[in-house]
Specification:
- The protein is α/β, with parallel strands linked by helices.
- The chain has one domain: P-loop containing nucleotide triphosphate hydrolases (Rossmann fold).
- It is built from 3 helices and 3 strands, in the order βαβααβ.
- Strands 1-3-2 form a 3-stranded parallel beta sheet, sandwiched between helices.
- It is globular, with a radius of gyration of 14 Å.
- The relative contact order is 0.28.
Length: 103
């Protein structure tokens, strides 16, 4: 199979995890990842984004964390995996509602 980059995106309760679990069982050779997160540094950013202690932070703080997490994730997991001819499936959580002042 030719390498592919597939994104499954949605908000809480949309069924992303259900779909990912189905695909993991059907295609165990694929690389499964999530965003924000997916690498050690990106996971640190994710924890800061979802930490309720940061809820009053400036929206630019969250934008910076999302961007930093994405750069690390793309450069250190997604691109190298695709270059190795692997298929990558990324779970992308939409944060609308959680951080309504973010955008």
């Amino acid at each position: 199979m030719q390498n592919k980059f597939i994104v499954i995106e949605g908000c809480d309760g949309a069924g992303k995890t259900t779909r990912i679990n189905y695909l993991k069982n059907k295609y165990p050779e694929f690389i499964f990842t999530k965003e924000p997160g997916g690498t050690e540094r990106a996971n640190v950013c994710r924890q800061m984004i979802i930490d309720e202690n940061n809820k009053d932070a400036d929206p630019r703080f969250f934008f910076s964390l999302f961007f930093a997490a994405r750069v690390d994730h793309v450069n250190n997991l997604i691109i190298p995996s695709i270059n190795e001819n692997k298929t990558v499936i990324r779970k992308l959580k939409t944060f609308f509602g959680k951080r309504e002042n973010f955008l």
